User: Fold this.
Amino acid sequence: MEQVAAAAVVDIRGVVTGWSDGARRLTGYPAQEVVGRAVRELIAGPPPGGSLRSPAGTLVLRHRDGGAVPVRVRTCPLHGADGRPYAYAVTAEPALAAESPPGARPSADSEPSAGAEPPTRTEASPRPDAAPRLDAAPGPAAATRPEPTLAGQAFEQASMSMSVFDTSQRYLRLNATARRILGVAEEEVLGRAYPGTVDDTERSPELLERLREVTETGFPVRCEHSVRTPSGIREHAWNIEMWPVRDTTDDIVGVALAAFDSTGQHRARRRLALLNEAATTIGTTLDVVRTAEELVDLVVPRFADFVSVDLLDWVLGGEEPPATDPEDAVLRRVAHGSAHPGTPEAAVHLGDTDVYPPNSAPARALREAHAVLSGAGDPDFHRWVAERNIRAPGGRPYRESAHSVVAVPLRARGITLGVAVAVRTTQPEPYAEDDAVLAEEVASRAAVCIDNARRFARERGTALALQRSLLPRGLPGQSAAEVAHRYLPCGSFAGIGGDWFDVIPLSGSRVALVVGDVVGHGIPSTATMGRLCMAVRTLADVDLPPDELLTHLDDLVTHLAGDGVSDGGEVAELGATCLYAVYDPVDRRLCMAAAGHPAPVIVLPGGTVRLVPMAAGPPLGVGGLPFEATELQLPEGSLLALYTDGLVEHPERDVDRATEELCRALAAPARNLEALCDTVLKAVLPEDPVDDVALLLARTRALGEDRVATWDVPPDPARVTHIRQAAVEQLADWGLQEAAFVTELVVSELVTNAIRYGTPPIRLRLIRDRALICEVSDGSPTSPHLRRAHAYDEGGRGLLLVAQLTQRWGSRQLAGGKTIWAEQPLPE
Assistant:
């Protein structure tokens, strides 16, 4: 006979209220002919144990064609909310020949079935206090439990958890795996609702809602569910599929559930997600302490209830690692975090130093250079906790609940930087080996980021020290202008840039104002800035006009880029911008030229503010393009603002609007230039500058006519005496009689040389400033130079005499000739 499985529901009155399709195939009766009839009308022999309430046995059913069908039956009571049974679920399977009662015969209408189907409940059954017996005719009960069918064996022995629920989410049947997971016998849960069989009250409503969803919608549901089962402390993950069970009339009579333990895959996904998040959230600032804090924020509370990060002192100082053993070094607490507000578990305050006991997990991790697990049952762990309790008694209640710890060394590029310690207190699951592997991987990524931040801080400090050594520490004394400056290195990941400024005194009481910006960041950019800064000073000493100076500087940058040819034959990228301006306080003229640099802003004494209209010129290093000079006549007291593009340029704001803000800030009243510098930076500087900022302010001065004397010199040697006498008289008017002797010699030598070797027009000018300046100009472009005269030479000693008698001397080219000048200190 083919194996057929059937199921039926019989209420406590003995009336059939549910009938499965398997029961129809086994007995030939459809559900509409059976539901509502007394169950004893379908039984040909006595029920097992004399009552259908017996758990199991054999009996003979009446087939619709009049035959007898021997079956093995199992009976399970269905309990109501008050705990009393209101019906019985009966499952039946054809009995083997040896088990069949005498006179029983199988029915020819029996059909094969893959498994039992839940019965359809068509009406509610009353629940009287006293349950009547469902006795049929008396007879002997089966003495042995029947063997299950192949389908029943498959259900019972399935490696996945399988359960069947009625439409009220009560258990109808469970297989062995489900019972093992729940840790209970089948009789303890049959007829009980699902929520009452699990301890995880947080997640069980979710699964219950899914069971109801299947019952109400009739559609299968797939989901992943995490729950901590009564039989263990570790949380398990399950891939669950639920589907509706229908009767012959297509009504939903129950829900079947199959759950596959996917804990391994779930934990692997969580580890991978943590690692992916670590790659994006740790190391976002290139700051050592912030990186450690990001590590703490990542793992608390998802991986640990308390985490601390301790680093060696040399790491915080941005230094190179010492030769000492890290185990003997003192650690400094830089970050910690807890699932409890205020981090009460911490025995060490942020910024304090700490030394771990030699046998504690952190000390072993530093010594052995790998993760160390410890916890309850380890004497060293309890000694370490006791030591912490003595050091900080206030956190004792929180530390007493600590049961598992993993300590991981922070190592990057073969160097130990510190140690991270993770502790579990409220999470019941102790750390395992896979947790140690995960902790090592996260700590390794954090250590690399910490080491990168350390290296960045070291390089930034080196570049900043180099840059500050090249920038002027104190502005040189000069009378042409009052100056103030600010330099702000940016704090971006790119590092220190190549911005610079300078104030260079020139001959004739003039002054050169310079600002520049080298492309790029870091030490290479700073080194290039230093070379350009020195080059500008050298070219300024030659007293070249601004446009010619930039032309020579452009050639230098081109040569520097050519010297940086890479191994592949490519020219290294090198560029810079520069603005060079020369102000003469005698005639109050400003001459300037720019190489790809922002134009300066001028504030006139009346308060008018405007950008200087000038050609920006190509950046330095382009080569082959000319630079144009711009000249202005400025009234005394004019304000000139030179700056680098970091002050007004930012990716998130408009340059024109920022320049307007700069103009308004420069026009604001201020007690002095130093205060005005602060006002400008506060009003214009972006909140998060992405580039260095250099700002140079200069308020012009003028030398009045009472401090300058000028004579036109006829090209006649006989007139030298009269010019010399006029100069001596002018010194007497200025009260500088003590300088008359040296001045008389200098004027005589320079005027004689101009008459002898130069071309008209010739002019003598004396300037009384911080020094006494004597200038002789003529129309010849040829500049004199010192030479050593031999014993019998008649000439060649005049300039040597001038150089010996004065503080310094030199020459500068003019548009129509040259000027020879000499300075001598004024008497005190």
Observations:
- The mean pLDDT is 83.
- The longest strand covers residues 68-79.
- The longest helix spans residues 433-470.
